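(Protein data)
===
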Amino acid sequence: MDVDNGQSASSTMMTTTSENISSQMQEIYETINILAGGIQTLNDDTQRLSSELIKLQSSIESLTQDIGSLKLSVQEKSSFLDGVKPNQEILQQDVASLKQKIDDLQYVSYDATLIWKIVSFNEKMMDAQSERQTSIYSPPFYSSPTGYKMRARLYLNGDGNARRTHMSLFFVLMRGPNDAILKFPFNYEVTFCLYDQTPEQRHIIDSFRPDIRSSNFQRPRLEMNIASGIPKFFPLAMIQQADNPYVRDDTMFIKVMVDFNDMPKTLLPYALILNPGFPMHVQQLLIKQEAERRAQQQQQQQQQQPQPGSISINLPIVPEPLESQEPVEIDLDEDNWKGRQSST
């Protein structure tokens, strides 16, 4: 009986142990299944990530190529813009040159006389003093529709030995369309007149005659010959005075006249104070009449001189009234009339 009870207890214990082992094995199996599932998921994720990595690498390579292409395109456009910039500057210069030519055509003269209106005087003077632009050119003018082409050149702050002390004014002979049939060297007196813009009309007048030995007055081979004229035309101390009569409303007027008729020096003041608004043929007629009047007056004075051994009474001669003109200030020293020349 006791043996049976022991066997039964042993059998029960073995059954319990077997069930525990079976239960543990089941748990282990389930755990293994779970781990296997996790491993499979990790494998799947690894494959997916690997596939995505390959795609990303492909995208990176494509983007790298695109960036290289964009960089090359930017370099090409930059090179293009660098090439366009000088062309743009040239185009702007061409436009400015064309505008200057159009402006020159508005003031072109064909009667050997130029009235040069210089606007923005103070700005141009500051440019000259700072040497941003030391000289300015007048519009071209002509002696006739088929004649010499000429212009003036002005150094507002002076040139050479006259720098910072005087304005320097020069005459420039230019290459013209009809030079082949014109006579050279150029040998005609040039007169400059700085206008007094007040009723006093104390104009500044100076002249010079070309040196025909100089290449400056031979037939031009380039666009312009070297300028020649009067380095010490007008003192800067006077032109810089606030109330000077030669600059009004920031504007200055200069007249350039080329004499092809050998006008007497004594007639120059009269010719230069004539109203510039008169047509040139009217001015020439007035000058001719004035010359004839002076010649007649001189002849009458000679006739009224007493003969040797005779007695005569000289009555005053009342001259014919002239056209109303104001007095003129003229620089007629001997050096000026002999002619002064300076190369610039």
Residues 89 and 234 are 37 Å apart (CA to CA). Helices lie at 2-106, 121-129, 236-239, 268-272, 280-303, 334-338.
